[in-house]
Every structure is written in structure tokens, then in C-alpha cells.
Amino acid sequence: MVYFISGLGADERVFQFLELPGIPVQHIKWLKPEKYEKLGYYAARLISLIDQREEVILVGLSFGGLVCQEIARHITVKKAIIISSIKSREEMDWKIRLAAFGKIYNLVPAEILKKIALLTANFFFSIENEKDAAFLKKIIEDTDSGFVKWALNEILQWQPPNEQPQVVHIHGTNDQIFPFRKLHPPVLKVENGGHFMIADKPKIVSKLLLDEILRT
């Protein structure tokens, strides 16, 4: 079974444009995080949503890629695939590291963070048309503000496990959130793909994803 984990606060709608014929898919839905819960403990709780009696392939998008790697610390997976995500703190842009160091985001109310996200999303997600802009806006509006603030903190403070699972990394060369130039190879690149390429370049992403799912 292939389990999909969406991005920060998003849901399975972000995967709706993928074409994976014949592939059984389950979408892991977010649980409400406990107060001050660390990402590793949160990921461990998500394991209850996974049937380990069969082969497991994890696919994590953006923040879901971090969660995917944390889950793979605890259970045996056939493959872990991350899309538009990172494998280490070294792959974070310096601006993100600066925000993590200063922790200024902790002073900003969750609702304000959400409004900022709405104002800046088109740039950071490399949105190119009104349809994608409206789709992304709807996803952000439907996202729980408290979850966003918790997840943002966990992204900025994330420390990868010492024994990192091997992951397949799919990433766009025009990603404004996690710049391609910062990534450690190997990476399967999508030319001119932005952080929202899961929706605006679904055919290319689908092909790379399907090849990896079917590869033994």
C-alpha cells in the first residue's frame, strides 16, 4: 500500500491531479497535535493509521516529507519518497535558518501567520495562473491556524534522526521554499518545478513517482 502524507495543514486534495493507475493509495489524515508535542512523537502516533501487515511505501509532500522520514524511523518501509521537501537542516535556505534561530514566529498569532501565508503564497509556491492560485488559496483558508503554527515550529526546529532512512527525493528546480541548489544528491529533478508542482506539473511528478513505486 502507498500512503500519502500531505503538506503543512493541507489534505488529500493536493494529490488529486496525480495519475497512478493500478496503485492502491491511502491518505493519512492529520491528527490534532498535543500541546508542545515534538514531531517525532506526533509521527509515531500516525503509525496507528498504517497497516503494517503489508508492504508500506510512504510518500510525503513538503512538511509531510519530514513526517514521512520520522515515521520511517519506527517501522519497516519498502520505500520512502519525499516531494518538495528536505532531508536535513543543511538543505534549508539561510532565511529559514535565521527565522528558526530568532524564533520571531512564536510572537506572531496563528491567525496572522495564516493571513501572511495567504498574501505570500503565490510567490513562494511559484503560482502561474488564476486556477492554481484559487486552489491554493482554498487549501490555506481551510487549514487550521493552530496546526499551521505548530507545524511551522516543528519544521524550523527539525533535527533529522541520526540514522536517517534512505529516501527518494523528487524536487523542482524553481522551488522558492526549499531551493534546489541547497539539496544533497541524489535528487530526481523537475525542471522549472516550483513548490506547488504536485498540482501544476502533475504529469511529470506522476511519471517519476510511478517509476519509483514500481521499482523493486
Automatic annotation (TrEMBL):
Pfam families: Abhydrolase_6. The keyword Hydrolase applies. The keyword Amino-acid biosynthesis does not apply. GO terms for molecular function: hydrolase activity. Keywords: Hydrolase. Gene3D superfamilies: alpha/beta hydrolase. Residues 41-205 form the AB hydrolase-1 domain. This is Alpha/beta hydrolase.
